[in-house]
Amino acid sequence: MYKDKVVLCGASAYEQKYYFNQDFSALPQQIKDELQIMCVMYTEEIGGILTLEFDEEGNLQFQVEALEADAMFDDIGSVLRIKELRKTKKELLESLELYYRVFFLGEGMEE
What we know:
The structure is a single chain. The two termini are 19 Å apart. This protein has helices at 29-45, 75-88, 90-103; strands at residues 6-12, 17-20, 49-54, 60-65. A four-stranded antiparallel β-sheet has the order 2-1-3-4. It is α+β, with helices and mostly antiparallel strands. It is built from three helices and four strands, in the order ββαββαα.
């Protein structure tokens, strides 16, 4: 069913908008809120566009884009901020990966 990357959520500093994929509407509101805060704070601090996407294996990837003309985008800050988010939100990110693998890819809990 899901062969390509699937976007979980994202935020854009350019449009000042947040997107959440309604395929994940069954997630608890607290997790949805935490994802929104994480994405929006990233784009407010760093700039550009941040999306959280699941790859074919169910790993959650941080995808960052910035307009070439965006002199305010912080490349170094982006790498550091994502590293920090991966560390501080490790439990949340791992739980989301497990959720995706079980409910979207149909893998068993023991895998």
